[in-house]
Amino acid sequence: MVAEKLRRTPAQVALRWGLQMGHSALPKSTNEARIKENSDVFGWSIPEDLLAKLSEIEQARLVRGTNFVHDTFGPYRSVEELWDGEI
């Protein structure tokens, strides 16, 4: 929906969102067309009303970090401790 309104691809919108939010965006591709597409995120911005729509998307962690947790050994005793309670 947002990509269609901006006449951009979903990937471009995701990259631009990251940049506008102050995050580092590191796209990866070996496809020449996608590399060019990914680099076309600097001459435009997402308007505030559409940025608000993107902020409504429910967030979830793809990697919970359970491999970094051990109740006896390791720097983190629980997933909650690893993420400072922000799971």
TrEMBL record:
It comes from the Eukaryota. One of its GO terms (molecular function) is oxidoreductase activity. PROSITE patterns: ALDOKETO_REDUCTASE_3 (PS00063). SUPFAM superfamilies: NAD(P)-linked oxidoreductase. InterPro entries: AKR (IPR020471), Aldo/ket_reductase_CS (IPR018170), NAD(P)_OxRdtase_dom_sf (IPR036812). PANTHER family: ALDO/KETO REDUCTASE. This is NAD(P)-linked oxidoreductase superfamily protein. It comes from Prunus dulcis (Almond).
